[in-house]
Amino acid sequence: MDVEARSPKPSGSMPTPDELVAFAARVRDARQHLNLTQEALGQAAGITSSEISRIERGVREPRLLTVFRLARALGLTPSQLLDGIS
Fold it and tell me: So what's the pLDDT on residue 14?
């Protein structure tokens, strides 16, 4: 087994495309479960609907504050929103 494959990602490293896609799906699924539009989620989280769209498509890496805002607006904790994404 390759040593790099066993090693955790260095702190401060960027999320992988797969991690962004997984986070995107988590946000989209939670939003749809609550029957919220992107606009409604954006208003509840204090961010624009275009930002929600970029996050849900996995093309935007959200800042930590955005993760907290999204989690609160979705009735989740940040750790619930990120659980299983690694």
Answer: 82
The tokens for 60 are 């935007």
E strand or H helix that includes residue 6: helix 3-6
Whole-angstrom distance, CA of residue 74 vs CA of residue 42: 10
Give the C-alpha distances (Å, rounded to integers) separating 28 from 8, 10, 11, 46, 57.
27, 28, 27, 17, 9
Domains of the chain: 15-82 (1.10.260.40)
SS3 (DSSP) at 16 = coil
Band the pLDDT of 78: cuts 50, 70, 90. Answer: very high
Write the CB contacts of 15 (distance below 8 Å, at least 6 apart in sequence): 23, 61
Q: Structure pTM?
A: 0.82
